[in-house]
Amino acid sequence: MTRNPIRRLWAEGKPAVNGWLSIGNAFTAEIMAQQGYDAVTIDQQHGFLGYEALAPMLQAIRASPVTPMVRVPWLAAGDIMKALDAGAMGIICPMINNRAEAERFVSYMRYPPNGQRSMGPTRAVFAHGSEYSAWADSEVLCLAMIETADGMKNLDEIVSTPGLDGVYIGPADLTLGLTGRKHPVGFDREEPEMVQAIRTILDKSHAAGIRACLHCGTPAYAAKAVGWGFDLVTLSNDVRLLAGAAKASVDGVRKMLGEQVAGAPAPTNSGY
Q1: What is the pLDDT of residues 127-182, one digit of tens each?
Q2: Which of 18, 35, 219, 257 holds its CA 20 to 30 A away from the CA of 238?
Q3: Are 106 and 100 in contact (CB under 8 A)?
């Protein structure tokens, strides 16, 4: 039986480090999965990919001992169930605004009598074993994104939703939702009101007995978030890592050659 490595880490009191895939390519997924992450999430919401790319990416990730997760496009039963049937061991659902939406999300994740997930784990039984349906409810992670003003307003009722394993903070959308265009959009918030909002979500999640996860842009901020008590931190994504490394390499050789560095800077807030 396949166990979820993230649940094992949490049971030991350890945080998890998550990678993020926005490029719809199995080779990119295979490379990222081998870099030492505890989990790797495929982004179907803002990532440059659809279901036809998702399946081979999950297959490529299987070669590494990481938890494969998917951020689905929206709160839609079909998208969630197909990602699970393809082998995802965790689902991150965007834009959860209230208790009713959280309950719907949980119901799509669990088989009856715990929910309304339809039976048909087409690939999951090959990826995780023939007994998959017997233990899936207790191992697959159900993470609701808190990233809107309504989600923040209804935080207490969301985090107390039975069956929800944790919340995942999208700091860019959360900043837009709470402050509008007052601050630049991005990760790694330092504004006092945003730090307070992020830590409030963390504290209320833990008080409700569930986990708290945060998308970060840099290792330093991720380490700080773990110090606050976050259970899972996401480090950047494949787009930013590729662009940043390529730009640094080109800039480095041009400077050595005495040439002027040209071109746009590597993106700092793309694709999460």
Answers
A1: 999 999 999 999 999 999 999 999 999 999 999 999 999 999 999 999 999 999 88
A2: 257
A3: no
Distance CA 150, CA 7 (A): 29
In angstroms, the CA 196 to CA 174 distance is 12
CA-CA distance, 26 to 23, in Å (whole number)? 9
Find tokens 């409030």 and name the residue. Answer: 200
Which of 151, 157, 83 has its CA nearest to residue 120? 83
Give the model confidence (pLDDT) of 54-94 as tens digits.
999 999 999 999 999 999 999 999 999 999 999 999 999 99
Give the active site residue among 46, 128, 183, 206: 46
Ordered DSSP codes for 148-212:
SHHHHHTHHHHHT-TT--EEEE-HHHHHHHHHTTSS---SS--SHHHHHHHHHHHHHHHHTT-EE
Catalytic-residue membership of 128: no
- The helix (run of H) or strand (run of E) holding residue 37 is none
Calpha distance 134→144 (Å, rounded) = 23
What is the Cα–Cα distance from 153 to 157, expressed in whole angstroms? 9
Instruction: Give dist(CA 220, CA 45) in Å, integer.
Output: 26
